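Support request, please re-run this one:
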Amino acid sequence: HKFESRYLDSLIGRYPEEEEVYKARSPINHVTSFECPIIFFQGEDDKVVPLNQAQEMHAAVKAKGVLTSLVVYPGEAH
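Re-run finished. Output below.
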């Protein structure tokens, strides 16, 4: 939505100009350091954080051997 359309520009920087900062701050690039159990709650219809991102994080954490769960809420958004 309009309010959040440039939100990350002020938090991180403009993309793709600041792509390296985005990569450095992305949790998927730090899974190797995760140790404690993690639960992901995700709206199935979320347009801000798409379901595939939660699924990818869940799979990566699980592959590392960390206890994890993914709860998807059908019909819910962000």
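The CA atoms of residues 23 and 62 lie 21 Å apart. The chain is about 35% helix and 15% strand.
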